């Protein structure tokens, strides 16, 4: 379900590319051009003796900068995640700071006319795949043009890496760009995704669904991981979400997916007490619901799935209901999740349980250039 923001969690696998520091790309007109023009008119003669600021934003290698140079930007990003998604971005920002200071985070920095960092984009590699981890531009400098420029830089670098044959990105705060405007648009597919939220106080009124005698619910425990990976691979076989995140296509990929959501903060802090599995009388995992905490008062459902032969019997409903009650018990007031907009069965279930769409974003996948 939620491959959206798990990328920051994948920073354990970082390959450093040999991208040279070429000339700044993308000398385009726009708000920076206007700023430079205004500066020219109003500046004193003395100021005119100084070199003029560049007429448009510069793109530089992110590894030239330290975390302290990104700090104003990260603080604004933290506020924006909080306001738009009720999501505490602190831990993800800490990971960014750590890897930026190690000069180990691949990506691009957008400089404003004062040569201060006003935007960034980073990416990581997972074997054959490149993942756009994040793009953020400070509101005062934000334009589609700047954002697409950062994205273009990242995608171009990843495509140039000989071991990369696929690029994925899910950027919940970014606008939904038309396909043709995206970099390398001939290789891109876009998938609409919904960010949904529910008020947890209503969870108390959801009626218990009595499960058939052959399936019981159990608390999540680490030893369920292997069976959970098998279940995820089976549940998402030919599912639209495995076109968005190819980790769902194999057991190895599903293991990595689980490892990331359990160990890294990209999807929030994993909450074992609000996570459950359904087990049948032969000990086979029939379904699971995994939850995390994204804010002191907000939970997030990072994964819910039911094996094909167990669907339509209320198992998904009951797993979700219990996760919601446990998040409520843990002090949460709200809960969020992300779902592919065309996954109508799942969305019907979520609506029935009180979720409402609060935002829509795109998942992009680039493939086919080799
Ligand atoms: C989405 C998913 C988790 C739902 O699980 P599920 O166990 O099939 O869901 P439920 O049985 O609780 O509910 C599904 C439907 O079955 C119906 N149902 C519930 N109990 C039933 C019963 N005893 N007999 C027959 N139907 C029943 C529900 O009313 C519901 O129908 P409705 O949506 O028309 O109201 C499951 O389809 C799945 O794993 N899909 C693939 C992975 C996926 O998409 N995950 C979500 C990603 S965001």
Describe the model.
The protein is an alpha+beta fold and 370 residues long. It folds into 2 domains: 1-175, Gcn5-related N-acetyltransferase (GNAT) (Aminopeptidase, 3-Layer(aba) Sandwich), CATH 3.40.630.30; 196-367, Aminopeptidase (3-Layer(aba) Sandwich), CATH 3.40.630.30. It has helices at 31-42, 45-49, 67-85, 90-101, 144-160, 225-235, 241-244, 251-263, 315-329, 344-352, and strands spanning 58-61, 106-111, 117-126, 129-137, 166-170, 188-199, 215-219, 269-270, 276-280, 285-295, 298-306, 334-340, 356-367. Helix 3 (67-85) packs antiparallel against helix 4. The chain is globular, with a radius of gyration of 22 Å. The protein binds coenzyme A. Coenzyme A is lined by residues 1, 235-236, 239, 304-306, 311-317, 339, 343, 345-346, 348-349, 352.
Reported by name, the CATH topology of the largest domain is Aminopeptidase
Beta strand count: 13
Could you estimate the helical fraction of the residues in percent?
A: 25-40%
**Cofactors and ligands:** coenzyme A
Cα distance spanning the termini? 28 Å
Number of domains in the coordinates? 2
In one word, what is the shape? globular
Sheet with the most strands, sense and barrel status? 13 strands, mixed
Indicate the multimeric state: single chain
Give me a quick take on this structure.
The two termini are 28 Å apart. It is globular, with a radius of gyration of 22 Å.
